[in-house]
Amino acid sequence: MITKTDTTIPFNKPFIAGNELAYIHDAVITKGRLSGGGSFTERCHSWLSQNLGNCLAFLTNSCTSALEMSAIMIDIKPGDEVIMPSFTFVSTANAFALRGAKPVFVDIRSDTLNIDETLIASAITSRTRAIVPVHYAGVACEMDSILETAGQSGLIVIEDAAQALLSTYRGKFLGTIGHVGCLSFHETKNIISGEGGAVLINNDSGRDLMEKAGVIWEKGTNRRAFFEGSTDKYTWIRLGSSFLPSEIGAAFLMAQLECAHTIVENRRTLADLYYRSLEPLQKAGFVRLPENLSDDSSSNGHMFYILTCSSTERSRLIEFLARRGISALSHYIPLHSSPAGQKYGRMAGPMTITNDISERILRLPLYHEMGPKDVGAVSGAIHEFYLG
Ligand SMILES: *Cc1c(COP(=O)(O)O)cnc(C)c1O
Predict the structure, then answer these.
(1) DSSP per-residue codes, 130-183
(2) Taking 70 as the threshold, does the pLDDT of residue 368 lie above it?
(3) For residue range 46-98, what is the model confidence (pLDDT) as tens digits?
(4) Ligand 1 pocket: which of 91, 94, 114, 361 to mutate (most atoms <8 Å of CB)?
(5) Residues near ligand 1 with C-beta < 6 Å?
(6) Which pLDDT band, with edges at 50, 70 and 90, does 225 fall under?
């Protein structure tokens, strides 16, 4: 009988940068401010717009709520259609289905695992309102092509950049390229606040959308304009909700953002090390590794995955690694094959690559405090699995 050892290399380990509790102390005790919209929220907003450029930022309680806020911002209505990959997290679809719209699933590319931009045009109907590219693993979708397709049909592009903070596409930061971008600071992402997120509004989207966002963020009121003195009545002016996190969350996040570049740099190094260690297995035809990006785009090292040859081989490898105390995970059940996906969405064409990839993808442990030795232990175990 096989007995499992305690996990020695977890899949993920939330990293604490160091100043989180001091900043929370400052917010709660020194400033005496717990509710949202205070100085830490402002500092996070400035950090995001200064470091990513070309955008106005609004912190939210999660990327889920950032996507929901985006759907309200662009007035998604029952009967509208929104194009997205099926290979994504449920929130990408929920945000629009909650407003009565139909998620329309498009297959992914086999190299980046991102929405196949060449299939988008044929998924567009007279009801299509928006395209939601998801930058899987922090790797950029083909944004130039997506923006061109969107422009031809007057569609809005909302980037699900939940995994993609500080990744770039042709020199621009992901989340700042479409009309709107959504980030996540969930504990499983690179930069964290437990639960957290942000909406980024592209400067080119115009003042109207920015003002609208400010109102929706403030529960549908003109509270912002009132405090800025540009109106003398504080009142309900459109639909909104409670999207802003407390200052406690923002203080925590600020401490993380200050270390964001270091964390991303380190994760990239670890991902490169994985690549080099596993390349011989790819050359021998046992596994496939993520594609290297072109020179002017870079990923933020959010994830490192391998593709096994079959679903049963993946199960055996997960078991093999678990016995060595290594936690590796599969990923999404494609939304088109989920009960709610079938009820609320529809497929635009066959989901051949989505189905195939979802059965073979295996995500390996990757976290900031992981050492090169840990990467060596994981890749050593994978070598052992294939070569004995
Ligand atoms: C994590 C994730 C989300 C949801 O983020 P939360 O902050 O947990 O709500 C949405 N989309 C994708 C692609 C994600 O990876």
Answers:
(1) EE--B-GGGPPP-HHHHHHHHHHHT-EEEEE-TT-TT-EETTEETTSSSSEEEE
(2) yes
(3) 999 999 999 999 999 999 999 999 999 999 999 999 999 999 999 999 999 99
(4) 91
(5) 62-64, 88-89, 91-92, 134, 160, 162-163, 184, 186, 197
(6) confident
* Other residues' Cβ atoms within 10 Å of the Cβ of residue 241: 14
Tokens 């929706």 sit on residue: 216
Q: Which ligand 1 atom minimizes the distance to the CA of 62? A: 7
What is the topology classification, in CATH, of domain 260-387?
Answer: Aspartate Aminotransferase, domain 1 (3.90.1150)
Which atom of ligand 1 is closest in space to residue 65's alpha carbon? 9
Identify the helix (H) or strand (E) that includes residue 342. Answer: helix 339-344
Residues of the chain with CATH 3.40.640.10: 20-258
Concatenated DSSP letters of 184-219: E-BTTSSS--BS-EEEEEEGGG-HHHHHHHHHHHBT
> pTM of the prediction?
0.96
Provide the CATH topology of domain 20-258: Aspartate Aminotransferase; domain 2 (3.40.640)
